[in-house]
Amino acid sequence: MTTRPKAYHSRVRTAIFPVAGLGTRFLPATKSTPKELLPVLDRPLIQFAIDEARAAGIEKMVFVSHPSKDAIERYVAEDADLENTLRAKGKDDIADMLRDNALTEGGVEVSFVMQDEPLGLGHAVLCAAGEALPGPVAVILPDDLILGEPGCIAEMIGAYDPEKAGHMVATMQVAEDEVKSYGILSVTGRDGPLILADGMVEKPEPAEAPSRQAVVGRYVLDGSIFDDLRGLPPGAGGEIQLTDAIAKGAGTVGMCGFRFTGTRYDCGSKSGMLQATIAYAGQHPEFRATLATLDLPTDAMAAQ
C-alpha cells in the first residue's frame, strides 16, 4: 500500500503519444508518410490510438513528435476546406467522418512537443512533462495496435488503483525466445487481471528473464514518473528507457502488470501490420468474401 498526500489526483486525464520515431522498418513508405499514418486497411494507426484515448475519457492528448513529421499535426486538425469540398460533392458521410476524427477546439485539449533526437521512449515521455495535467498519465504507443472492446487503456484506467500500484503496464505472456525483445516483469503475485511485481528488466536474455510477462505499449503511470526520468542514465541500447524509470519508482509507488482482453498486433513490424490488416478486415462484412478467397494460415483466420 502507498500513502498519498491529500492533493494527489488519482484520475487519469492526460495521454501521451510518442510519435517521433522515423519508421525505418517501413522505408521507403515512411520517407514521406509517418508510420503512424500508415493505414490498417483504411484507418491510420494514429486514429486507433486517438479513439482508444477518447473512449477512456482522456481530457488532454500530448503528441511527442519530430519536426520532420508535421503531417501528424495536420492529420489530427480539422480541415474545414476539405470538408466543405466533400459536402459540395454530396459526400456528407465522408465529411462527417473527418469532422468526427479531428481533434477540434472545444473538445479534447491537444498539444505537440518535439523530440529532436532519438534518445528513447523514456526521453519521449519526459518531453511531455510540461504539458501533462496533474495526476497519473497514460502512455499509448500507436504502433502497438490492440483491437478489442473496451479499449485497452480504458480497461487499465478502470482497474487502476494507486493504493495498490502507482505504475501499471499492459502485459502479455510471450515465448521464452521472445523475452529479449521486451521489458519483462519480476512477478510477485496476481490479483485478478493485475500481475503484481517488484520491478522489471529491459530486454533480458532468456536465461536471466524473471518471467515471461512482457510489457507492451500501454501504460498508466504515477506523476512521479517525470521526476524519476530526470537524470536517469542511458540504459539498453544507449537510450533513456521508460522501463528503467518505472522500475526505479516501483519501490515507492508500487507497480503491476495488467492482462488486457484485446488482441495486440506489433504494427512496428511488417508482419504485425499485415496480421492487423487481415484481422481488422475480418471485422467488416464487405471484406469477408475477399478474405475467403485467400489461403490464410489457421492462426491468421483465428485472429479475425
Content of β-strand: 15-25%
Determine the CATH superfamily of the domain at 11-142: Spore Coat Polysaccharide Biosynthesis Protein SpsA, Chain A
Shape: globular
Counting DSSP H or I runs of 4 or more residues, the number of helices is: 11
GO molecular function, one term: UTP:glucose-1-phosphate uridylyltransferase activity
Family: Belongs to the UDPGP type 2 family.
Catalytic activity: alpha-D-glucose 1-phosphate + UTP + H(+) = UDP-alpha-D-glucose + diphosphate
Organism: Roseivivax sediminis
Structure explained in plain terms:
- It is globular and about 60 Å long.
- The protein contains eleven helices and 13 strands.
- The chain has helices at 45-55, 70-76, 80-88, 92-101, 121-127, 152-159, 225-229, 242-253, 270-281, 288-292, 298-302, and strands at 14-18, 39-40, 43-44, 60-65, 109-114, 137-140, 144-147, 167-173, 183-191, 194-202, 213-221, 255-259, 263-266.
- The chain starts with 13 loop residues before the first strand and ends with a helix.
- Helix 3 (80-88) runs antiparallel to helix 4 and helix 5 packs across helix 8 (242-253).
- Mean pLDDT is 89; it is low at 1-8 and 298-304.
- The strands form three sheets. A nine-stranded mixed sheet has the order 5-4-1-6-11-8-12-10-9, sandwiched between helices. It has a two-stranded antiparallel ribbon with strand order 2-3. A two-stranded antiparallel ribbon has the order 7-13.
- It has a domain at 11-142: Spore Coat Polysaccharide Biosynthesis Protein SpsA, Chain A (Alpha-Beta Complex).
- It is α/β, with parallel strands linked by helices.
